């Protein structure tokens, strides 16, 4: 029998419920428990796959091809175990299931209602991973903020589960904000009191209050929160702003969040937390010996969450290289052949980001050209790889209108084309080439040096692909296709001869980078950038000497 922890949020959104849930999970895992985390989101989209990154940040993809909330990325990066379709559920999916059942006649004669039919379906899904027998503890993060109209059925489901389960099998952790009023020079507890009252009115009584704060909470304040929120003072946990999200598990350990939860769940005799690898990572992260500057060329650069997994993969890769990776966001719409040098000079590596649609693609193609010609370390992901193929077609093979049919359906050189199985696809949600696919790597390649493995599996999310009609032209002109999906004959990795580090991948390696398993392409890209930076400094000092 698994035990259940629910994490709710109050006062405001963006308090970092996902990080608190992942940190608690990490600590329980470090004490020897088998833990998973799932996220229940109250919006009506069946999954976030159809949401614009400006709306909801990056869409995270699991091995089994689910398009999910970006918090699942945090869960995987912290726990180092894969999540799946079952780990992310939305109101849309719940209603879809209930409505399908209604059409199939399963509730024949009955009025289908929010309570009990919707709440029963929420409960069934909340218990699904726990019933699989694979986990000791299932942590469920509820999206949204307590008091939202759309989160009511979810809170009601938690209330029922809390009532149904033995007391020692369920914990509710409520994350709130303790704002600091500058004029009064005071931390304020009232919003927290109100949000706990709201939650209690909906029938759920939290066992632990985690307080996001910019200033330390003294014991009097903790006592006050405890008294008014009806928990013991040790169940009031301070979550002070951290320099890095990866410090949060250790801060929660200091505050005793895991111990209070373990006690409530009647876990006695739990072992001391084994966090050696985690601490080692943090030590490296905190003591960089070098610095590189990487240009992230994308069109959603205003919004950090749009490239969340890429940014985190750089944190992991930077730590292992003991190198601070400074990311410079470069808007691809603002790049053109005239300003490219100005905008990209001084960078030690260029990453051309994934994306959809034609906005900003010409700037991405210019950036690839600049990296290819100036031998700057280059890394193209998904659309970034496709842009590298187009650039090579235009500027090496001389096909000036080479393009992807996604952006130019009438091009005479469709070097990136829609996959056959995509041609008949009409619906948008969940219909791309999604999830993990095998790829075979050529031993004589940069990709093999990076992976040290002939067989890899990586996650995908795209509809277009390298057009094999042009394969021999490309190969004859010096493009290396070093990774192939044998089952479908799809080109998954491209490289260039005579370039220190140039790699484009049709998949999303950023989705598999974790603290304990930094992704090898990111690790080697940072290394190449480091070498590039060192070499360009030599050139500078040689130059100086010469002038002297
Ligand atoms: N738009 C491209 C495709 O669908 C690339 C997608 C991506 O970068 N994830 O093939």
List the helices and strands and how they pair.
Blueprint: E1 3-9, H1 17-30, E2 35-41, H2 53-56, E3 60-61, E4 67-68, H3 71-79, E5 88-90, H4 91-103, H5 114-131, E6 137-142, H6 152-164, E7 170-177, E8 180-181, E9 186-187, H7 190-201, E10 208-213, H8 219-229, E11 236-240, H9 248-255, H10 257-264, H11 276-286, E12 290-298, H12 308-320, E13 323-331, H13 340-344, E14 349-352, H14 361-374, E15 378-381, H15 383-395, E16 403-404, E17 414-418, E18 433-441, H16 446-451, E19 455-462, E20 464-466, H17 471-476, E21 479-485, E22 490-496, E23 502-505, H18 520-547
Parallel strand pairs: 1-6, 1-7, 2-5, 2-6, 7-10, 10-11, 12-13, 12-14, 14-15, 15-23, 16-17
Antiparallel strand pairs: 3-4, 8-9, 17-20, 18-19, 18-21, 21-22, 22-23
Helix pairs in contact: 1-3, 1-9, 4-5, 5-6, 11-12, 12-18, 14-15
This protein binds glutamine (GLN).
Summarize it:
With 548 residues, this protein is of the alpha/beta class.
Structure write-up:
This protein is α/β, with parallel strands linked by helices and 548 residues long. The protein has 18 helices and 23 strands. The strands form 5 sheets. Strands 13-12-14-15-23-22-21-18-19 form a 9-stranded mixed beta sheet, with helices on both faces. It has a 7-stranded parallel beta sheet with strand order 5-2-6-1-7-10-11, with helices on both faces. The protein has a 3-stranded mixed beta sheet with strand order 16-17-20, covered by helices on one side. Helix 1 crosses helix 9 and helix 5 packs across helix 6. Bound molecules: glutamine. The site of glutamine has 10 residues, from strand 19. Glutamine (GLN) binds next to strand 19.
């Amino acid at each position: 029998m698994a035990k259940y922890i629910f994490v709710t949020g109050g006062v405001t959104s963006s308090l970092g419920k996902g990080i608190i849930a992942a940190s608690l999970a990490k600590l329980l895992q470090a004490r020897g428990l088998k833990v998973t985390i799932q996220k229940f989101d109250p919006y009506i989209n069946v999954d976030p796959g159809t949401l614009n990154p400006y709306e909801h940040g990056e869409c995270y993809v699991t091995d089994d091809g689910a398009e999910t909330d970006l918090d699942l990325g945090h869960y995987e990066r912290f726990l180092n175990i894969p999540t799946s379709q079952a780990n992310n559920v939305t109101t849309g999916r719940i209603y879809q299931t209930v409505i399908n059942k209604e059409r199939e006649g399963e509730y024949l004669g009955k009025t289908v209602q929010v309570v009990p039919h919707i709440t029963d379906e929420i409960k069934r899904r909340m218990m699904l991973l726990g019933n699989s027998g694979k986990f000791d503890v299932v942590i469920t993060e509820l999206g949204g903020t307590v008091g939202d109209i759309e989160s009511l059925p979810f809170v009601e489901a938690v209330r029922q589960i809390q009532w149904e389960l033995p007391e020692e099998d369920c914990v509710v952790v409520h994350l709130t904000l303790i704002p600091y009023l500058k004029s009064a020079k005071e931390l304020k507890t009232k919003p927290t009191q109100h949000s706990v009252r709201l939650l209690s009115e909906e029938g759920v009584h939290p066992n632990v209050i985690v307080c996001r704060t910019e200033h330390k909470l003294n014991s009097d304040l903790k006592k006050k929160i405890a008294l008014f929120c009806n928990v013991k003072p040790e169940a009031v946990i301070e979550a002070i702003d951290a320099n890095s999200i990866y410090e949060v598990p250790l801060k929660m350990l200091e505050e005793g969040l895991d111990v209070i939860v373990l006690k409530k769940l009647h876990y006695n005799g739990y072992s001391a937390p084994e966090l050696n690898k985690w601490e080692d990572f943090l030590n490296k992260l905190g003591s960089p010996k070098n610095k590189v500057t990487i240009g992230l060329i994308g069109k959603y650069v205003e919004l950090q969450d749009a490239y969340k997994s890429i940014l985190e993969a750089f944190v992991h890769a930077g730590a292992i290289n003991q190198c601070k990776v400074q990311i410079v966001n470069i808007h691809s719409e603002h790049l053109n052949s005239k300003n490219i040098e100005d905008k990209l000079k001084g960078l030690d590596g260029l990453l051309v980001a994934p994306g959809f649609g034609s906005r900003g693609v010409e700037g991405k193609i210019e950036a690839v050209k600049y990296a290819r010609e100036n031998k700057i370390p280059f890394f193209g992901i998904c659309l970034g790889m496709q842009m590298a193929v187009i650039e090579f077609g235009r500027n090496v093979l001389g096909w000036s209108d080479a393009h992807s049919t996604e952006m130019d359906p009438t091009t005479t050189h469709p070097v990136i084309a829609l996959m056959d199985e995509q041609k008949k696809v009409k619906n948008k949600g969940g219909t791309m080439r999604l999830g993990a696919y095998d790829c075979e790597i050529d031993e004589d390649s940069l990709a093999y040096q990076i992976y040290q493995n002939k067989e890899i599996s990586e996650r995908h999310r795209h509809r277009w692909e390298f057009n094999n009609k042009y394969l021999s032209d490309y190969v004859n002109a010096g493009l290396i296709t070093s990774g192939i999906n044998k089952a479908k004959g799809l080109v998954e990795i491209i490289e260039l001869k005579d370039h220190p580090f140039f790699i484009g991948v049709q998949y999303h390696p950023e989705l598999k980078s974790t603290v304990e398993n930094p992704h090898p392409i990111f690790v080697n890209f940072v290394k190449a950038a480091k070498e590039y930076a060192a070499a360009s400094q030599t050139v500078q000092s040689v130059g100086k000497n010469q002038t002297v």
